[in-house]
UniProtKB/TrEMBL annotation, chain A:
One of its GO terms (molecular function) is 3-chloroallyl aldehyde dehydrogenase activity. It is found in: Cytoplasm. This is Aldehyde dehydrogenase. It catalyses: octanal + NAD(+) + H2O = octanoate + NADH + 2 H(+); an aldehyde + NAD(+) + H2O = a carboxylate + NADH + 2 H(+). Residues 459-468 have a biased composition (Polar residues). The gene is ALDH3A1. Homodimer.
UniProtKB/TrEMBL annotation, chain B:
This is Aldehyde dehydrogenase. It comes from the Eukaryota. Residues 10-424 form the Aldehyde dehydrogenase domain. It comes from Sciurus vulgaris (Eurasian red squirrel). Keywords: NAD, Oxidoreductase.
Length: 468, 468
């Protein structure tokens, strides 16, 4: 596969010319990316429709709009982010310049994924470009139409050598991972995340891993159930449940389980009609393997709603399971499908314990009118991020970093955090060569005893990194 | 029988109990560290003298004072660092509460090296404790005297339910690394850094790797040779050259080389006297193995200054080599000893090329009266940190992050950066159940009318239209 090796070599050679260093160049590329999105919107929508049954609304509103926003925000802020950041000086360095200088890392690999195949490939790319890197893109082969589209249109708008697209399956991805990069950004599963990090370790390449997990959704007895269930239904069944920050399962008191089911059903009917299969807005499962996997999770469960599927169209009805046993398969893996299990717990404490017995999730949700419940839930658990009284929305705030912890990932991005992730913050101290006398005290030989008894002089030791 | 199983389980349970969360607990631990330093000053000085023939001056300045000031800094700023960090919101989330919560990871492993065995153990430890983690410390077995103090004395000053010291060599460390930690902080060689990262990858454990490399030191023709020689010599021969950020080799023109040689001779004589082996201010080599390695390097190129060695004292004279070839061992590996090769280059361009052909170093130095020259070296290279016209002074500012890039490492610490390195930054958004009308636009069924309203709203740039 020397072809992959050549592509990476070319990207590095292009990077080494220094072409990406001026901000003007980076902004031009981002503007070209924006033009690409605007001019090729229908192609992008078509690809998303073919891969995941998205329509022009869901394509735009769930994917494209975030990328456009990110580009807009990045272009505006880039000059500020790229500036040297002066830092506080010690008494000894008052006459010097001390600052943090942001530099590109070099050649960055971005491995995309299939559930939001446009957004999750291109949004990180925006930060990587802004930080001045060359970017090798490896879209997911599962969302085949988008992968092919990106390989076609990106070179038409962006520099071909600096931002190549490499397509292929496992063999090609394995091959790409043998190459040396200056940062690897991966979105996908925990299992493959480990493989990526192992490959990166061989070259001491830093990684950002956006993984997943089972994002719990605790619904308190004291909450507005109508609003809660509406928001939960929206977040859960969007893209047919194939969202890394979707509420994976509900934890609630048994006394409200039935109400929750009824209200979820009500919202589902409002969103997708009586038969979601007929709704333009309801997604499809990405492929047969995942279809079978998700259908398998429903087996043996108490189905309160839905539970059916159609293999030919890879449609799975919005499904709600009740009284779910924590030991059952549906509670062992990230569902990534339109199946909502409800697990009954007898108290907030039990819910917290339940959550803490499991791997740290990418997101955590808590619905309650009582701020103390929310505070307690947040302070006694951990997760990548949290939204209280809604779902998913925390990832749409530019100034909040988006990333996981533990099994759900490491590193973060979005907004300025993307720029930081793809940059090296280089500590700089610039002194003058004049006046070496000022430094006399630091040079040996040290006197055996200093009159007055204090050695080393306080001025030296107190200069050691003490912020005043 | 796994010797670490019980200890790790105990520490995990302690973390789960929440003991390390309150600021009071963390502050008490930090105060304990401060007392450890103050109560055992002589013991620590003796250990450093035994391990590395470290002078009182060097020990105070580079080990004890630095550790103390990091403890003091953390105590002073703990509350501020622990506070939730409010972030700016977009239009859709104006009424919500958006902030980043700093949370401990859990169980942290710190693997420390032998060259600054107190500093490079305690400074990361300060950050890990301040951030609320439980900590396993693995001091270097090569700096035996300090290892003993850290194993036997340090634990008395900390809550041993939340802190443990484990001992051993490479085999034990490998075994330790098979366990799961929530963060691994390693200081050492790039070679072992790869092993640590690969082990961490199995558990998706984030790592901070403080590694090394060959730190280039460019000396321009436009400079005062004695001033430069004083500074370069001091930072080179400090701790007998066993410093990860020491200038490893000099790049200069043949003319400047001729001016530097007598100046370096002067500096060495001034600092260490006519018989440096007898000087209390010059360190000795840590072990027989490293001594032999360095003795071998003395055969590279031609000895211009120094070159003496004494196996019985593991003493190597402050040495300057000239006429070295790039292929010789002294230019292939990080020297980590009191040997300074002067490499001739014909221009600044050649120097920059020379630097960029090699792995990114941990530190990079440029000496010149011309700030353009200094800025050019900075702009056209990359490195962990940079200092113009001096040695590793940049490390004395806690406001500057300390870390590598590429082969010299990933991640950073010192001051607040330590606290941040050992914390998970959790994005939190607390929404109110109200404002449902605004949310309405995001729910299906999606019509062209919705889309048009949204697009119009988006044209108004101010509206960040993630109207979720």
């Amino acid at each position: 596969m020397s072809k992959i090796s050549d592509v990476v070599k070319r990207a590095r050679a292009a990077y080494n010319t220094g072409l990406t260093r001026p901000l003007q160049f980076r902004i031009q590329q981002l503007e070209a990316l924006r033009r690409m999105i605007q001019e090729r919107r229908s192609d992008i929508t078509e690809a998303l429709a073919a891969d995941l049954h998205k329509n022009e609304w869901t394509a735009y509103y769930e994917e494209v709009i975030y990328v456009l926003e990110e580009i807009e925000y990045t272009i505006k802020k880039l000059p500020e982010w790229a500036k040297d950041e002066p830092v506080e000086k010690t008494p000894e360095t008052q006459q010097d310049e001390s600052y943090i200088h942001s530099e590109p890392l070099g050649v960055v690999l971005i491995i995309g994924t299939w559930n939001y195949p446009f957004n999750l490939t291109i949004q990180p790319m925006v930060g990587a470009i802004a930080a001045g890197n060359a970017v090798v893109l490896k879209p997911s082969e599962l969302s085949e139409n988008m992968a092919n589209l990106l390989a076609t249109i990106l070179p038409q708008y962006l520099d071909k050598d600096l931002y190549p697209v490499i397509n292929g399956g496992v063999p090609e991805t394995t091959e790409v991972l043998k190459e040396r990069f200056d940062h690897i950004f991966y979105t996908g599963s925990t299992g493959v995340g480990k493989i990526v990090m192992m490959a990166a370790a061989k070259h001491l390449t830093p990684v950002t891993l956006e993984l997943g997990g089972k994002s719990p959704c605790y619904v308190d007895k004291d909450c507005n159930l109508d609003v809660a269930c509406r928001r939960i239904a929206w977040g859960k069944f969007m893209n047919s449940g194939q969202t890394c920050v979707a509420p994976d399962y509900i934890l609630c008191d048994a006394s409200i389980q039935h109400q929750i089911v009824e209200k979820l059903k009500k919202s589902l009917k409002e969103f997708y009609g009586e038969d979601a299969k007929k709704s333009r807005d309801y997604g499809r499962i990405i492929n047969a393997r995942h279809f079978q996997r998700v259908m398998g999770l429903i087996e043996g469960q108490k189905v309160a709603h839905g539970g059916t599927g159609d293999m030919a169209s890879r449609y799975i009805a919005p499904t709600i399971l009740t009284d779910v046993d924590p030991q059952s398969q549906v509670m062992q893996e990230e569902i990534f499908g339109p199946v909502m299990p409800i697990v009954c717990v007898r108290s907030l404490e039990e819910a917290i314990q339940f959550i803490n017995q499991r791997e740290k999730p990418l997101a955590l949700y808590v619905f309650s009118n009582n701020n103390n419940v929310i505070k307690k839930m947040i302070s006694e658990t951990s997760s990548g991020g949290v939204t209280a009284n809604d779902v998913i929305v925390h990832i749409t705030v530019h100034s909040l970093p988006f990333g996981g912890v533990g099994n759900s990932g490491m590193g973060a991005y979005h907004g300025k955090k993307s720029f930081e992730t793809f940059s090296h913050s280089r500590s700089c101290l610039v002194r003058s060569l004049l006046n070496d006398d000022a430094h006399k005290a630091r040079y040996p030989p040290s006197p055996a005893k200093v009159r007055g008894g204090e050695w080393p002089p306080h001025s030296l030791t107190s200069a050691q990194g003490v912020l005043r | 029988m796994d010797p670490f199983e019980d200890t790790l389980r105990r520490l995990r349970e302690a973390f789960a109990s929440g003991r390390t969360r309150p600021a009071e607990f963390r502050a008490a631990q930090l105060e304990g560290l401060g007392r450890f330093l103050r109560d055992n000053r002589q013991l620590l000085l003796d250990a450093l003298a035994q391990d590395l023939h470290k002078s009182t001056f060097e020990a105070e300045v580079s080990e004890i004072a630095i550790s103390q000031s990091e403890v003091d800094l953390a105590l002073r700023n703990l509350q501020a660092w622990m506070k939730d960090e409010r972030v700016s919101k977009n239009l859709a989330t104006q009424l919500d509460s958006a902030f980043i919560r700093k949370e401990p990871f859990g169980l942290v492993l710190i693997i420390a090296p032998w060259n600054y065995p107190l500093n490079l153990t305690l400074v990361p430890l300060v950050g890990a404790i301040a951030a609320g983690n439980c900590v396993v410390l693995k001091p270097s077995e090569i700096s035996k005297s300090m290892e003993k103090v850290l194993a036997e004395v340090l634990p008395r000053y900390l809550d041993q339910g939340c802190f443990a010291v484990v001992l051993g060599g490479p085999a034990e460390t490998a075994q330790l690394l098979e366990h799961r930690f929530d963060h691994v902080f390693f200081t050492g060689s790039p070679c072992v850094g790869k092993i640590v990262m690969a082990a961490a990858a199995k558990h998706l454990t984030p790592v901070t790797l403080e590694l090394g490399g060959k730190n280039p030191c460019y000396v321009d023709d436009d400079c005062d040779p004695q001033t430069v020689a004083n500074r370069v010599a001091w930072f080179r021969y400090f701790n007998a050259g066993q410093t990860c950020v020491a200038p490893d080799y000099v790049l200069c023109s043949p003319e400047t080389r001729e001016r530097l040689l007598p100046a370096l001779q002067n500096a060495i004589a001034r600092f260490y006297g006519d018989d440096p082996q007898r000087s209390p201010n010059l360190g000795h080599i840590i072990s027989q193995k490293h001594f032999k390695r360095l003795q071998g390097l003395l055969g590279c190129g031609r000895v211009a200054i120094g070159g003496q060695s004494d196996e019985s004292e593991r003493y190597i004279a402050p040495t300057v080599l000239v006429d070295v070839q790039e292929t010789e061992p002294v230019m292939q590996e990080e020297i980590f000893g009191p040997i300074l090769p002067l490499v001739s280059v014909r221009s600044l361009d050649e120097a920059i090329d020379f630097i960029n052909r090699r792995e990114k170093p941990l530190a990079l130095y440029a000496f010149s009266n011309s700030s353009q020259v200094v800025q050019r070296v900075l702009a056209q290279t990359s490195s962990g940190g940079f200092c113009g016209n001096d040695g590793f002074m940049h490390m004395t500012l806690a406001s500057l992050p300390f870390g590598g890039v590429g082969n010299s490492g990933m991640g950073r610490y010192h001051g607040k950066f330590s606290f941040d390195t050992f914390s998970h930054h959790r994005a939190c958004l607390l929404r109110s159940p109200g404002m449902e009308k605004i949310n309405d636009l995001r729910y299906p069924p999606y019509s062209l009318r919705n889309l048009r309203v949204l697009l119009v709203a988006m044209e108004e740039r101010r509206c960040s239209c993630t109207l979720l």
